[in-house]
């Protein structure tokens, strides 16, 4: 027969242990609340920032703060500004500058364009314009002149050649000869180009220039070695022996001829 050991007493949990358990539970609840508050605050801040940048008028484009540079003598600045004005009120962070640049490139006379945001409300539109380098007589029955840039692109027309712009005489429809003439004109220094009154060529190898104010005729030949021909021509014009020459032939620049 086993021994009677008496009633079993329940384990005693101290007051201190209960308090520690309750404290840990409160800490977990407080941490969860702080995490929820932090997430909600982050969502609210992100939403507010997104609204501020993308929807509010705080960073909206003001057409009055659009600056256009590089328009030259051909591009109509008001047409470029009109393109930018189509985006008035659009927040700058949402503005598609690539699309806007493509629209600016459609403006007559614009060769290259770059659009840069100018915070908080403006744009800088930087252009490279198609400047005319030659005036070519129009085909009959028209009586005016077509103004071409260095790439042969028409940038305007005129009844008479603008001051400082040479008139080009080449066979109608001869693109190769016209291209040769334009390549020569493109490489001439500004001071020499301003002195050229007219250019004629029957082929791409027979470019001839006439200078203004009764200056000599320049036999240029092809567009090859143009930098060397410019140097030789400069030296010839400065030489006393060529002072009375009516023709300066630099078509073979290593053996120039004056007569």
TrEMBL record:
Broad class of the protein's primary localization: membrane
Entry-linked Gene3D superfamilies: membrane protein fhac (3.10.20.310)
Keyword tags: Cell cycle, Cell division, Cell membrane, Membrane, Transmembrane, Transmembrane helix
InterPro entries assigned to the protein according to its UniProt record, in alphabetical order: Cell_div_FtsQ/DivIB_C, FtsQ_DivIB, POTRA, POTRA_FtsQ_type
Segments crossing the lipid bilayer: 36-54
Intracellular or extracellular location(s): Membrane
Domain POTRA per the UniProt entry, residue ranges: 61-130
Protein name (record): FtsQ-type POTRA domain-containing protein
């Amino acid at each position: 027969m086993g021994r009677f050991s008496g009633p079993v007493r329940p384990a005693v949990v101290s007051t201190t242990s209960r308090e520690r358990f309750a404290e840990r539970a409160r800490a977990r609840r407080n941490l969860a609340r702080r995490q929820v508050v932090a997430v909600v605050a982050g969502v609210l801040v992100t939403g507010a920032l997104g609204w501020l940048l993308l929807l509010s008028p705080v960073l909206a484009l003001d057409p009055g703060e659009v600056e256009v540079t590089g328009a030259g003598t051909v591009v109509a600045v008001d047409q470029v500004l009109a393109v930018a004005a189509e985006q008035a009120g659009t927040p700058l962070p949402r503005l598609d500058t690539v699309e806007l640049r493509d629209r600016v490139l459609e403006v007559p006379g614009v060769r290259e364009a770059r659009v840069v945001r100018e915070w908080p409300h403006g744009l800088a539109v930087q252009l490279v314009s198609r400047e005319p380098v030659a005036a070519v007589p129009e085909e009959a029955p028209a009586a005016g002149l077509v103004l071409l840039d260095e790439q042969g692109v028409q940038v305007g027309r005129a009844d008479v050649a603008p001051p400082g712009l040479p008139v080009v005489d080449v066979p109608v429809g001869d693109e190769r000869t016209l291209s040769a003439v334009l390549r020569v004109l493109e490489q001439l220094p500004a001071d020499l180009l301003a002195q050229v009154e007219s250019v004629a060529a029957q082929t791409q190898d027979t470019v001839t220039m006439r200078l203004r104010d009764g200056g000599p005729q320049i036999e240029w030949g092809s567009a090859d070695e143009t930098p060397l021909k410019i140097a030789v021509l400069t030296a010839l014009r400065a030489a006393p022996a060529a002072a009375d020459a009516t023709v300066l032939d630099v078509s073979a620049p290593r053996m120039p001829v004056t007569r």
